[in-house]
Write a structure and sequence with these properties.
The protein is an all-alpha fold and 79 residues long. It is 67% helix and 0% strand. The termini are far apart. InterPro entries: Uncharacterised_Rv0898c (IPR020311). Pfam families: DUF2630 (PF10944). This is DUF2630 family protein.
C-alpha cells in the first residue's frame, strides 16, 4: 500500500544514495548514470506525492494516484 510516508521514505533513500555518490568526489561514468536514474526516480516520486496531496485536497482518494512513466514526468516544463 502506498502512503505519503512510503513515498517520502523512498525520496529520503534516493537522496541519501545521491549524496553518497557525490561524497566520493568526481563521479565515475557509472556514478553519473546512476545519478541520472536517481534524478528521474526522484521526479517521479515527487510527482506522485503531489498527485496524492492534490487528490486529498479536492476530496478525492489519494490511493487513486499512480506513478507516471518517466517519459511523462520528464516532459513537464517549468513555467
Amino acid at each position: 500500500m502506498t502512503t505519503d510516508q512510503t513515498v517520502l521514505n523512498r525520496i529520503e533513500k534516493l537522496v541519501a544514495e545521491e549524496e553518497a555518490l557525490y561524497a566520493h568526489g568526481d563521479p565515475s561514468i557509472a556514478d553519473r548514470q546512476r545519478l541520472g536514474t536517481i534524478n528521474v526516480e526522484l521526479d517521479r516520486c515527487w510527482d506522485l506525492l503531489r498527485q496524492r496531496r492534490a487528490r486529498r485536497e479536492f476530496g478525492d482518494d489519494p490511493a487513486d494516484a499512480s506513478i507516471r512513466p518517466a517519459s511523462v514526468v520528464e516532459g513537464y516544463k517549468d513555467e
